[in-house]
Amino acid sequence: MTREEAVKFAEHAVNITGISEVKEFYRMAAVALTPPTQEQVEKVWRGEWINTNNEVEQMCKCSKCGYPISYFWSRTQFCPNCGAPMTDEAVGMVMERWEELHG
Ligand SMILES: [Zn+2]
């Protein structure tokens, strides 16, 4: 059984049982087995470089962990400290990685 088939099975099973605990179990299983959408990845994991614009050297910091980085080095795809994806491309790479791990 593939993950997709397991999700379909769990979603179908919710409707064919009358036992509320079993319904709840299949509902939770379907949610746990469903990969995150691009929107969810963006909302939960995506960070951005915030320009803190301090004194002499322009600095940025990661919106997720506050890691400071020089503005000139802040074009990285991922935060070097917490690994948050910072660009559309990086979010895409996270989605691909997830599919590889769980697909
Ligand atoms: Zn970070």
Automatic annotation (TrEMBL):
The protein's name in its UniProt record: Zinc ribbon domain-containing protein
